[in-house]
Amino acid sequence: MLITNPETAIVKGYQGEKFNLSPDEYRWLVSVQATDLTSFASQMLDYQNKRTPASDLAFAVKIPAMSRVCNGEMIENDWPLG
Q1: Which of 7, 50, 8, 52 is nearest to 31 (CA)?
Q2: How far apart are CA 50 and CA 56, in angstroms?
Protein backbone atom coordinates (compact mmCIF):
# COMPACT_ATOMS: atom_id res chain seq x y z
CA MET A 1 0.00 0.00 0.00
CA LEU A 2 2.96 2.35 0.56
CA ILE A 3 3.65 2.09 -3.16
CA THR A 4 0.13 2.31 -4.55
CA ASN A 5 -1.54 4.60 -2.01
CA PRO A 6 0.93 6.04 0.52
CA GLU A 7 -1.52 8.54 2.06
CA THR A 8 -3.93 5.75 3.02
CA ALA A 9 -1.05 3.57 4.25
CA ILE A 10 0.15 6.37 6.53
CA VAL A 11 -3.33 6.92 7.98
CA LYS A 12 -3.97 3.19 8.52
CA GLY A 13 -0.55 2.44 10.01
CA TYR A 14 0.76 -1.11 10.19
CA GLN A 15 -0.43 -3.91 12.48
CA GLY A 16 -2.00 -1.46 14.90
CA GLU A 17 1.02 0.86 14.99
CA LYS A 18 0.75 4.43 13.70
CA PHE A 19 3.51 6.23 11.80
CA ASN A 20 4.98 9.24 13.59
CA LEU A 21 6.27 11.26 10.63
CA SER A 22 7.54 14.81 10.49
CA PRO A 23 5.98 17.04 7.82
CA ASP A 24 9.16 16.63 5.74
CA GLU A 25 9.04 12.83 6.04
CA TYR A 26 5.35 12.81 5.09
CA ARG A 27 5.98 14.95 1.98
CA TRP A 28 8.84 12.67 0.95
CA LEU A 29 6.82 9.49 1.49
CA VAL A 30 3.85 10.58 -0.59
CA SER A 31 6.19 11.76 -3.36
CA VAL A 32 8.03 8.43 -3.80
CA GLN A 33 7.78 7.07 -7.34
CA ALA A 34 8.41 3.34 -6.77
CA THR A 35 7.08 0.37 -8.69
CA ASP A 36 8.13 -2.32 -6.20
CA LEU A 37 9.45 -2.71 -2.65
CA THR A 38 13.07 -2.90 -3.78
CA SER A 39 12.81 0.47 -5.48
CA PHE A 40 10.95 1.91 -2.49
CA ALA A 41 13.58 0.64 -0.04
CA SER A 42 16.41 2.00 -2.19
CA GLN A 43 14.81 5.44 -2.32
CA MET A 44 14.18 5.34 1.44
CA LEU A 45 17.85 4.56 2.12
CA ASP A 46 18.92 7.42 -0.15
CA TYR A 47 16.57 9.77 1.70
CA GLN A 48 17.81 8.62 5.11
CA ASN A 49 21.48 8.89 4.10
CA LYS A 50 20.94 12.49 3.00
CA ARG A 51 19.30 13.37 6.33
CA THR A 52 21.36 11.38 8.84
CA PRO A 53 25.14 11.16 9.30
CA ALA A 54 26.38 7.61 8.71
CA SER A 55 27.58 7.33 12.32
CA ASP A 56 24.00 7.84 13.55
CA LEU A 57 22.80 4.92 11.39
CA ALA A 58 25.14 2.35 12.94
CA PHE A 59 23.46 -0.20 15.18
CA ALA A 60 23.95 -3.80 16.19
CA VAL A 61 21.82 -6.40 14.44
CA LYS A 62 21.25 -9.96 15.63
CA ILE A 63 19.54 -12.81 13.88
CA PRO A 64 17.86 -14.87 16.59
CA ALA A 65 18.08 -18.63 16.71
CA MET A 66 20.33 -19.14 13.71
CA SER A 67 21.38 -22.73 13.26
CA ARG A 68 24.80 -23.94 12.26
CA VAL A 69 26.37 -27.32 11.93
CA CYS A 70 29.37 -28.08 14.15
CA ASN A 71 30.88 -31.54 14.02
CA GLY A 72 27.68 -32.92 12.51
CA GLU A 73 25.41 -31.39 15.20
CA MET A 74 22.94 -28.53 14.75
CA ILE A 75 23.71 -25.72 17.19
CA GLU A 76 21.25 -22.88 17.87
CA ASN A 77 22.96 -19.55 18.31
CA ASP A 78 22.46 -15.76 18.13
CA TRP A 79 25.06 -14.37 15.74
CA PRO A 80 25.76 -10.63 15.87
CA LEU A 81 25.99 -8.95 12.47
CA GLY A 82 27.09 -5.46 13.40
Answers
A1: 7
A2: 12
Q: 40: how many CB neighbours lie within 10 A of its CB? A: 17
Domain ranges (residues) in the chain: 6-54
Helix, strand or coil, per DSSP, at residue 41? helix
Task: Evaluate the CA torsion angle 12, 13, 17, 21 in order and state its sign.
Answer: negative
pLDDT at residue 28 greater than cutoff 60: yes
Q: Judge contact between 29 and 2, C-beta under 8 A.
A: yes
Where is 75: in which H helix or E strand?
strand 73-80
Which H/E stretch holds residue 24? helix 23-31
Q: Partners of 62 in the beta sheet?
A: 80
User: What's the pLDDT band for 8 if we cut at 50, 70, 90?
Assistant: very high
